[in-house]
Specification:
heterodimer, A: mainly alpha, ABC transporter involved in vitamin B12 uptake, BtuC, 12 helices, disordered N terminus, disordered C terminus, B: mainly alpha, two-stranded antiparallel ribbon, 11 helices
């Protein structure tokens, strides 16, 4: 086991020399949209969404993987961020604020929602938290669906459209950029903007993980009673994890609204929370690299299914027995069960010296 | 006054169904300390299997008496659900009994979605009409209050089942073994109790109750659907927490109270909020109650155990 805890922990088979590994990942991240573009614009779109999901997964991992709190309503914070953007930067209310006001506001609202939700529940056992967060996600969705009367706030199930795109220093990311004769498509521009956010998030979270706070979270996750006994303010730390996780959700939601130009309650169903949870379970709870791999895999999954599973079924049975959406749900739920039974630490298990997850008995 | 009586009646009907489902949650929690997320899906499977049986039978033998159809539907749905419940425990949870406590929770969510997806593959995405096997012709015992035989039937069946379960748990040998296992698996094992068998039996009994609740639920709403188990499951869990999770009478009381609160809430919410919120917010009450109970009395109405016993 490597003892360098600041490293992205990878299993031995993946542990290329770090001097090769890091530039390789960076190169891959930078070149990905160019490769995807050659395969068609829809793949760049998939990449953009993959980065949004990576951001979500990093945030949820903070809560579930680091602090060991199961949050089943995480998508509600995504919704809060998205609707904040939709309210403050669209013709719906006629307000058009710039992103550097809207995005932090969305993050702040999401964090507030997280703290408000965590406050009553965090002193209880983890399973209650799971249910309460699940209920909270549903409540947010019910409100989004029904707050179009008597006063129209959310525009109900139709959602809000023509949302302002992300505009950084006068550069409108929703339009193709003409740079010295080169056409850079809008999707690619968004990719790099999202990539910047993801990189910032990764740096932040990695610093956090090895900080006093991160160690306190790990202690709480592994044995709450012992953590309390050595003087950790467990409730405060849990609230912090919850609020910070929600912040990531809020930022990601705001970016989503700007990118999509349209939000509706449909995008924030319980299924989405489950998808994000599966990403971190599959990739490896508590391990950033694993979580990122999980998020990218599961975002690409529906596209891959559409491209491969459908033709395969046509060839085998002469018709599509399972449409890609059903197949995706089937694979997701199986992944969750099988991973927990066979490889509970995920594809790329966390290997920092703070993670001793196998000792604890229920 | 008429509205009051009417809402009380409606509340009792949905409340007794919640109570049946809540019993399943609370029994499993009492013994394993695990929230069986997939329990709500058993309600759905019970309803859909019964529907399938009834449709097949009435297609093969037209003119069969509805009561026979109902009995046949239940007779198939209950064993099917019991088998599914047993398999969930055997495959999904047994191996994780000593795992970190996040693991069985995540498996439970996976099982829940797996069952939903399988149901979607088998029965499709559409809403199925559930036949009216017990008459729904309204009767009017007094002015402004409407009761259907189905509603009376629902309440009677639910209470009979709860009574039966109480007898089983408090008087029978199996019930004593269940209580002992809930107290402490290991010591129960030392007393010669087959703890795995008792746990499996708990899942089987809870699943059977869920199947019956599913048939009652589908009969009352005249509809069956692959995702119909989610909301009653969640509400039943709330009911179990409200009553004090792990406590059988608590689950029953919690279910009835939740049904009543919901029914009154939906009936009066427009007056209370001056028309700002309407009855489409009905589902929020369950969560508000859940939140309030967790803040003010985490051990529930009848619970003695402290919620935090990790």
């Amino acid at each position: 086991m490597t003892t360098n805890s600041t490293a992205l922990p990878l299993p031995a088979s993946f542990a290329l020399d770090r001097r090769i590994q890091r530039p390789l990942v960076i190169l891959l991240a930078l070149a990905a949209p160019l490769v995807a573009l050659s395969m068609g614009k829809s793949w760049v779109r998939v990449l953009d969404f993959a980065l949004l999901y990576v951001l979500l997964a990093i945030g949820l991992n903070l809560v579930v993987g680091f602090a060991g709190l199961l949050d089943l309503g995480y998508i509600a914070f995504y919704a809060v961020g998205a609707y904040t953007w939709a309210f403050l930067a669209s013709p719906h209310f006629g307000i058009h604020l710039p992103f550097w006001i809207v995005l932090p506001l969305g993050a702040a609202f999401a964090a507030l929602a997280g703290i408000a939700l965590g406050f009553p529940t965090l002193r209880l056992r983890g399973d209650y938290l799971a249910i309460v967060t699940l209920g909270f996600g549903e409540i947010i969705r019910i409100f989004m669906n029904n707050l179009n009367q008597p006063i129209n706030i959310t525009n109900g199930p139709q959602g809000i459209d023509s949302i302002d795109p992300l505009t950084i220093a006068g550069l409108d990311l929703s339009k193709d950029l003409d740079l010295f004769g080169f056409q850079i498509p809008s999707l690619t521009l968004y990719y790099y903007a999202f990539l910047a956010c993801v990189v910032a998030a990764i740096i932040l979270v990695r610093r956090l993980q090895i900080s006093r706070i991160g160690r306190a979270w790990a202690a709480i996750r592994d044995d709450e009673l012992a953590a309390k006994a050595i003087g950790i303010d467990t409730r405060m730390m849990k609230l912090l994890a919850f609020g910070l996780g929600a912040t990531f959700g809020g930022v990601s939601g705001g970016l989503f609204a700007a990118f999509q130009g349209f939000v509706s309650p449909e995008s924030f169903s319980l299924m989405e929370s489950i998808v994000v949870l599966t990403m971190i379970v599959l990739g490896g709870m508590g391990n950033l690299a694993g979580v990122i791999v999980g998020a990218i895999m599961l975002t690409a999954l529906p596209e891959l299914l559409r491209h491969f599973a459908v033709p395969m079924q046509m060839a085998l049975f002469g018709k599509t027995l399972l449409d890609p959406e059903v197949l995706r749900m089937l694979l997701l739920s199986l992944a969750m069960i099988v991973m927990m039974l066979v490889r509970p630490a995920g594809l790329l298990p966390a290997r920092t010296r703070y993670a001793h997850r196998d000792r604890r008995n229920a | 006054m008429e509205t009051f009586l009417q809402q009380t009646l409606n509340g009792l009907v949905s409340g007794s169904i919640y109570a049946l489902v809540a019993l399943g949650y609370t029994m499993v929690y009492g013994i394993l300390g695990l929230i069986n997320f997939a329990h709500g899906e058993l309600v759905m499977i019970g309803a859909l299997v019964a529907l399938q049986t009834v449709t097949a039978l009435s297609g093969a033998f037209p003119g069969l008496h509805p009561v026979i159809l109902l009995i046949a539907g239940v007779a198939v749905a209950v064993p099917v659900c019991m088998a599914v419940g047993y398999l969930i425990e055997r495959i999904g949870y047994r191996r994780l009994r000593n795992a970190p406590r996040l693991a069985p929770l995540i498996t439970a969510i996976g099982v829940s979605f797996l069952l939903q997806t399988l149901a979607m593959i088998i029965w499709g995405r559409e809403f199925h009409v559930f036949p009216q096997l017990v008459s729904t012709t309204p009767m009017q015992p007094m002015d402004g209050v409407v009761v259907s035989p189905l509603q009376i039937f629902t309440i009677v069946v639910a209470f009979a089942l709860m009574g039966g379960l109480m007898l089983l748990v408090n008087k029978s040998r199996l019930g004593r073994a269940m209580r002992a296992t809930a107290e402490n698996h290991r010591v129960a094992g030392l007393m010669g109790i087959n703890a795995n068998g008792v746990i499996a039996a708990t899942f089987i009994i809870g699943s059977g109750l869920a199947a019956l609740a599913g048939v009652l639920f589908a009969s009352n709403y005249a509809i069956a659907h692959y995702a119909m188990g989610f909301t009653p499951g969640l509400k039943a869990f709330t009911a179990a927490v409200l009553g004090g999770i792990g406590n059988l009478p608590g689950a029953m009381v919690g279910g009835l109270v939740l049904g009543l609160v919901e029914s009154f809430g939906a009936g009066y919410i427009e007056h209370l909020t001056f028309g700002f919120l309407n009855s489409s917010y009905q589902d929020i009450f369950a969560f508000m109650i859940l939140g309030a109970v967790l803040i003010f009395r985490p051990s529930g109405l009848l619970g003695e155990r402290v919620a935090d016993r990790a």
